[in-house]
Amino acid sequence: MSDKNRVFIFDTTMRDGEQSPGASMSLEEKIQISRIFDELGIDVIEAGFPIASPGDFEAVTAISKILKNSIPCGLSRANKKDIDACYEALKAAPRFRIHTFISTSPLHMKHKLNKSPEQVVDAIKDSVSYARNLTDDVEWSCEDGTRTDMDFMCKIVEIAINSGAKTINIPDTVGYTIPSEFTKIITTLKNKVPNIDKAILSVHCHNDLGLAVANSLAGVSAGARQVECTINGIGERAGNAALEEIVMAIRTRNDLMPYSTGIKTDLLSKASKIVSNATFPVQFNKAIVGKNAFAHEAGIHQDGMLKNRETYEIMTPESVGVKKTSLIMGKHSGRHAFKEKLNDLGYVDVTDDVIQTAFGKFKVLADKKKHVYDDDIAALVDDSMILDKSVINLKSLKVFAGTGEPQRAEMKLDVYGEVKETSETGDGPVDAIFKCIKSLYPHDVNLQLYQVHAVTEGTDAQATVSVRIEEKGKTTVGQASDTDTLVASANAYLSALNKMIIKRNKTTAPIELETQKMKGI
Length: 521
Prior knowledge:
This protein is an alpha/beta fold. The chain has 17 helices and 16 strands.
């Protein structure tokens, strides 16, 4: 590609982006952001509006001193005081840019500036010339450019270039334009401004109609070679064009947009997270950097992804710094993805019957909760495996409770095919039940949770009991339901215990060795 197809990235996250309600950044946060931006390969970093506050002045000064590759920039209105503040904040940098602007639409000139077009022309001449005496890198913007009269815009752009501006920025300040209209604006400037070849045309689009990225790319296709944007698209009102979307659109559709940027795209996700931590969270479905940008839940999509990732991904997650694609397990997931998830969780030798049973339970669970986690899936598979591999089962239970004598439980268990029975007293009927189980199958676990809740109302309510036990860092949860709370308690504990035995066997000996051990072989 030739240099004429190089698109410069001008980031205004710390200036326009910070103007988002709730996006105010501390000096430390701005320094951290500027370092990752410098590494990312951003060409120009608009570090702030120095005249706005002492904090902004301090931030622009600090950032201008630490940048190694990017050009620091400060914003100013069309007056000497603002421009002087920019110069003072930036002068320590070996190279820097002053970005000055003034409103040019009839609406803004009349109601915001209370100036005539002739006065605005004079202000452009004076401010750009003054800035040019302080630096050879001056950018000029016509605020509310997309609502500016086209003939007037051509005139003032020519004047700004003659006054010393090397970059001419056309802002869609209120997100009003559409791609075809914006294309016409840039094309007209390229064709009608006689000295336009002496400056780089830039675009700065807001997202009020959701068209900021589309308008920016339309401007590039029409001849603009700088795009002003922000990480995560933050900014006034609905925000700015998102830097990551601009860059990845150019990279992904290079067949239709044969341009290049200097952005190291594998750092985009990192930059997004740093900005998000300093401002506010990114929506899950945000393009490129959102949590769901490389996540798939629909069964058809997951099946296609497992066969060939290009079926549903137009770019790789690695290209933007995301480790890998996520197959999200939810109610829309299919059996293929479920089986793949089991492989990822280490269930490589599970039978088809167990998979089918667990998948059925998974579908029921996924209808009940939004997020099905890996631990949920592991529990479902363990439950399904227990149907075939339960080594301890309750045969009978009698409990004697009340006042005047210790609570006692009589229990029969089938332990590896051998029926055993015992009687134990305890501090309450549940304690007596758990002591019976430990007597018939000696083991040493920590009881972490015992919880009872009713599934239905009334005195005949079905009780669901949950038990969580821990052994050497491994944890299992058992659950059982019965109209008899004590029976449910026994079965819940046995369920957790059977799962623990399975977990032991997955990391030690197979279940046959456990059976032999229990039988004394």
